[in-house]
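Write out the 3D structure for:
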Amino acid sequence: MKIQSWILAGLLATLSVAASAQSVAPGKVRAAVPQEAMVKRAETLSEDQIKQSHDAASLSRLAQIYNSQGDMQRFIWALRRITELMPDSGDLKLQLAMAYAKTGDKKNAYDTLVRMQTQGFGYDVSTDTRFEPIHGTKVWDYIVTNLQVNAKQFGEGKPAFELPKGDNLFDALAWDAKRERFLLGGAREGKIYLVDLHGKLADFIATDAANGLWGIDALAIDAAHGKLYVTSSATAIYKGFSADNAGKAGIFEFDLASGKFLRKYAFAASDGAHRLTSLVVSKDGLVFAADGARKQVFKIESGALKEVVNNPKLTRISALALSGDGRTMYLADFALGIFGFDLAKGQAFELAHDPTHLVLGGVVGMYWYDGTLAVIENGMVPKRVMRLKLTADGRGVEGTMPLDAANAAFVDLGSGAVAGDKLYFLASREDALYDARGVLTDADKLGPVRVFASNLRFAWGQKGVSNGLAPMAPGTAQDKPAKPAGKTPAQP
């Protein structure tokens, strides 16, 4: 039986466009490598050659080849290298542990699973038959218990309200503090609604000849200047999509109180297709938006969109946030974690943290709150909301606090908005119900979209929550694990 490779297939789908863009000169067509030639070349690679690769997409292709051939040794080499390049992916590490288990390599299988537990991952592996070769030891029992502890529900947050069922694909949320109302955008209709604290909707802004809105991707409010900013794009998911508007995108400016259209900042047709999926506004009214797929960040300057970040080494920008003083921009890469960008110096930096205890991948929403970053991690297992206490210079994480994790309401997490001391966010997005052509695949599965609220001041001032377990160092004897010391929810 071959190891399942759906995880690798998903990784390849995520990275293939980026890999192609990095390796092909502008205006050139990437030459296809025949499958037979690729397989023959893969069969000759040594462990050292595989270790030298920094291309996760190519490594994923190699792993799929080795898996299909039953070459477990090279499969493990390739998968191990991918996990080194993408240390925040629990699914990839779980598959690596499965591969070790299949070959009977208990030590490496155990060490991989223990490291996952220490990072905060929570999986129930107790009934997974792919781990049967490493059953029957005290270490296995220890690992099962600890991973299950990490998967337990934690936090005091609760569902706040539900949005009406419909073919809307709500993906954008903002909070108007002055009028105590939410603003909600849908990618399907190109409409913006007003929402009260009970989830009641009222029409606010719709696409028309004056504003030319397409599907709504993100919302941000400039409270100081009374403005609403909207990123909008014409993609296949938008019901009004056509050959005439395909690939068009921009930032739209409205009066926050009335919804009156003020101005549009659009990309020139010659700039190619864009989709601005993240949007943030500073206290001084500076507007930044990210094209996640193209790994670019733009700023509104002198009436136009000016590029301020372009980093092909990223896989995809999934969220943006600005520090309270507006000097630092934080960018979340879904696969690689969180990075910072000094706006004054134009310099990027990695957000320093201990990756053996803290996972910063899988972020779909990121928000500045009282000197901290609140992050929504839809790609983490379990799904969770975290508060990160930053160092004085904003370049590192010195403390963490889980706000909510493994809640039964967490189906598919999405964007949110800070309202007072709470973070409201979409907890049951329905993007998965639409295919790549924008077709709704199963209308019967549409349901009310749940909005969840986490308390941003939960356990404020505390250092963090210990996972309550006695960590077992990698390499511990296989029959003498440390004993669990408690069942407190996991804290990376």
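The first strand starts at residue 154 and ends at 155.
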